[in-house]
Design a protein that fits this description.
Helix 3 packs parallel to helix 8 and helix 10 runs antiparallel to helix 11. Strand 1 and strand 2 form a beta hairpin. Strands 2-1-3 form a three-stranded antiparallel sheet. It has a two-stranded antiparallel ribbon with strand order 4-5. Among the domains are: 210 residues, 2-Layer Sandwich (Herpes Virus-1); 89 residues. It has eleven helices and 13 strands. By secondary structure, it is mostly helical.
C-alpha cells in the first residue's frame, strides 16, 4: 500500500496526484514486455514452434534448463520455499521439455501459507509501505497495490502471483481472466518481463519496523535483508527480566517463551520462540503446491506430484500406442475418451493389431537369435574338438551349418521388413477411406445447410409477396367502395342540368 512520507493517517486516505517530471519517460507494461521479448535469449536453439505461436514468449527460460538457478533469497524461510518450488518444478515440468506456468520461483509470501503452518514468520512483501506514489501501470488490477511476483496472462494482463492464483482457485464458473473474461489456465501464464520486475524492485519502501522508530528507506529488493538481519528494531526484549534473550515477535504476555516445547505435528523438541520457523521445515506440516494450489504435507509432496496433482502435465494414457499428446492430469481422462489411439476406435484397432503382430515377430526373432547363439557356441566347441583330433570334415560341416543359419536369419529379417511395409500400407488403406467419408459427410452437411438457407429465404420472399398482395387487394376494395358512393351523386347532378336545358326561354 502507498503511504507518503510525513502525512498523518487521515491524509493517507486521499493521496495527492503525482506531478513527477519523469512521467513521460516511464514505459508502460505492454511496451516493456514487447521490448523484453525482442531482446530475449532462449536457452534452447530449437524452440517449440507450436507453443511460441499459441502463447507469447517471455524473457524467462523458454525451456526447462537444468543449469537455471533462481535468484537467492536472504532469509532462511525463503530458501525453504525455494527448495519446495524446485521439487515441485521437477515433478511438474522437468520431463516436459517446455514451459508449464511461470518459471520464476515465487516469494514465500506469495504461496499464501496459513499461520498454523508457519506463515506468520514469513516476510510479507504485500504489506510494505511505499514512500512515493507508485506508477499506476505497476499496480495489480485485483489488490490495487504494486505487483509482487508479477505473472502475465496470455491476454497480456499482469497480476500478482498470489492474487491470480486465488482468483483461479476460487472461480466457480471455470478459469477466466478477471479483466476481459478470456479463458485462462495456469500453465498458459508466464512470468512478467524483466524490465517490469526491475521497476518494481526499484520502488522505495519503509522498513517494516518504522512504527518502532526505524528510519530506514530502501529499495524493495533490499528491504527484506535489512528487516531480517540488519535492523536493530527487529528483535524484542524478553518480558522476563532474568532472561537476556531476544524475541522475533512482539510478546503477547509477560511470560518467558524461551523454553522447549514439543512440536504439535512431529513431536520434536523445539524452542517456543522458534516454533513458526520450525513449522516451515517440519515434514508433517503442509505447504502450497505451486501446480494445483493445494495444501499438501511436505513428506507427501513428491508422491502428490507423481500421482495426484491435477496441475501437472502428463502423457496420454495411450502413449504406448503412439499418442504424443501431453495434457494436465485433470484433463487426461477426457482426452483419453476422445483420443484417436483409443483401442476401441478404428485406428486404435489397427494399431493394436500391428503391435501384436510386431510383438509376435519380435519374439520369433529373439528365439532365432537365441538359437543362433546356441549354434555358434556348439560350433566353437566342435571346432575345438576337431582341432584337437585333426578332423577337417567336421569343421567344414559346421561352417556350412553356420552359413545356412545366417541365410535363414537374413530371410526371416527380410520377411519381417516386408510384412511391416505391408501392414503400413494396409493401415493407410484403412484410414484413407475413413478420412474420405468424413470429408464427404462434411460436404453433405454444408449442402444441407445451403439448402436450408435457400428454403428459408424463399419462404421469407413468399411471405413478403403475400403481404404485398393482401395490402394491394385491400386498397382496391376501398377505391371501389368510394366509386360506388359517388355514382348516385353524378346521376342527380345530370338530372338537374337536364331540367335547366328543357326550361322554356322567355
Amino acid at each position: 500500500m502507498w503511504r507518503p512520507t510525513g502525512q498523518s493517517p487521515q491524509q493517507e486516505l486521499s493521496p495527492p496526484p503525482t506531478d513527477s517530471s519523469e512521467e513521460g519517460y516511464r514505459l508502460t507494461p505492454a511496451v516493456a514486455r514487447r521490448l523484453a521479448r525482442r531482446n530475449r535469449r532462449r536457452t534452447s536453439p530449437t524452440p517449440d514452434l507450436v507453443t511460441s505461436l499459441v502463447r507469447p514468449p517471455s524473457p524467462d527460460p523458454f525451456y526447462i534448463n537444468s543449469q537455471y538457478q533462481p535468484q537467492p533469497r536472504h532469509d532462511g524461510q525463503a530458501s525453504l520455499g525455494r527448495a519446495d518450488f524446485e521439487l515441485m518444478s521437477r515433478g511438474r515440468a522437468a520431463d516436459l521439455g517446455r514451459r508449464s506456468g511461470p518459471q520464476r520461483p515465487p516469494h514465500p509470501s506469495s504461496l499464501d501459507i496459513p499461520q498454523k503452518y508457519g506463515g506468520a514468520c514469513i516476510f510479507d512483501l504485500y504489506s510494505l509501505v511505499y514512500v512515493d506514489e507508485p506508477d499506476p501501470n505497476l499496480l495489480c488490477p485485483i489488490c490495487h497495490d504494486p505487483l509482487v511476483d508479477p505473472v502475465t496472462t496470455p491476454c497480456d494482463h499482469t497480476f500478482c502471483y498470489r492474487c491470480i492464483r486465488r482468483c483461479i482457485d476460487s472461480s466457480p464458473s471455470g478459469t477466466a481472466c478477471p479483466i476481459d473474461r478470456e479463458p485462462l489456465t495456469w500453465p498458459e501464464c508466464f512470468s512478467a518481463a524483466r524490465l517490469i520486475r526491475t521497476q518494481l524492485n526499484g520502488l522505495v519502501v519503509k522498513c517494516p519496523n518504522y512504527i518502532r522508530g526505524c528510519k530506514k528507506q530502501a529499495m524493495r529488493e533490499d528491504i527484506e535483508t535489512h528487516a531480517t538481519s540488519e535492523c536493530r528494531y527487529r528483535e524484542y526484549t524478553c518480558p522476563n527480566t532474568s532472561c537476556d534473550k531476544k524475541l522475533h515477535d512482539k510478546p503477547k504476555d509477560d511470560d518467558c517463551h524461551h523454553r522447549e516445547i514439543p512440536c504439535s505435528y512431529c513431536d520434536a523438541s523445539i524452542m517456543e520462540t522458534e516454533r513458526d520457523l520450525h513449522l516451515l521445515t517440519c515434514s508433517k506440516t503442509k505447504t502450497r503446491c505451486v501446480s494445483c494450489w493445494q495444501l499438501v504435507s511436505r513428506n507427501q509432496l513428491e508422491a502428490h506430484l507423481e500421482f495426484d496433482c491435477e496441475g501437472v502435465e502428463v502423457g496420454c494414457p495411450y502413449k504406448d500406442l503412439g499418442c504424443p499428446a501431453r495434457v494436465l492430469r485433470a484433463h487426461a481422462h477426457p482426452h483419453g475418451l476422445g483420443c484417436a489411439f483409443h483401442p476401441d476406435t478404428a485406428t486404435g484397432i489397427v494399431i493394436r493389431t500391428q503391435r501384436d503382430l510386431i510383438q509376435s515377430f519380435g519374439e520369433q526373432l529373439q528365439e532365432m537369435r537365441e538359437r543362433q547363439d546356441d549354434a555358434a557356441r556348439r560350433i566353437e566347441e566342435l571346432a575345438m574338438l576337431a582341432g584337437r583330433r585333426g578332423g577337417d570334415d567336421v569343421v567344414i560341416h559346421d561352417k556350412r551349418t553356420m552359413q545356412d543359419l545366417d541365410a535363414g536369419f537374413e530371410e526371416i529379417h527380410q520377411n519381417l521388413t516386408q510384412l511391416e511395409a505391408r501392414q503400413s500400407m494396409w493401415t493407410m488403406n484403412q484410414v484413407m477411406p475413413i478420412r474420405e467419408e468424413v470429408t464427404e459427410l462434411r460436404n453433405n452437411i454444408n449442402m444441407v445447410r445451403i439448402n436450408v438457407n435457400w428454403l428459408l429465404n424463399r419462404s421469407r420472399a413468399e411471405e413478403g409477396r403475400m403481404r404485398a398482395a393482401n395490402s394491394s387487394g385491400s386498397a382496391t376494395t376501398i377505391r371501389r367502395d368510394s366509386a360506388g358512393e359517388a355514382a348516385p351523386m353524378m346521376m342527380e347532378r345530370r338530372r338537374s342540368s337536364g331540367t335547366d336545358v328543357d326550361q322554356p326561354r322567355l
